[in-house]
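REQUEST ID: PR-0412
SUBMITTED BY: lab tech R.K.
PRIORITY: routine
TASK: structure prediction, single protein chain
INPUT:
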Amino acid sequence: MWRFAVLLTAAASIVACATSGAPPFIQKIEAGPRYSLTDAEMNAIKARIIPTLKDPDSARFSPPVASQQPDGSVLVCGSVNAKNSFGGYTGMKPYYAWLKNGQIEKITMSEELERLRISLHPCPS
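STATUS: complete
OUTPUT:
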């Protein structure tokens, strides 16, 4: 009987995780119309990302793609490549920035978000 209880608890946990979906800020993302970033907006994004890199002077940014969201915010998708401690480039790493009224609300650099992006397609191609 206790095995059945353990199995039932495990099954309920799996269902709860599977139905909870993505984090709340991910659920709001839509592939809205393209948005043209200003130089000031892009410079602000770079200024927040560059200090987090091992070799800030080596940063190489891909051209970003931005889309207007229904709430008026802007989602910016891009990637950055920089050197690691050994002096080699690590490969392009995705970043996501959310802007509201021209100000940065959040910047995330995460491979987990890259996997979510592939499944949700929040940025226009």
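NOTES: Residues 22 and 116 are 8 Å apart (CA to CA).
REVIEWED BY: pending
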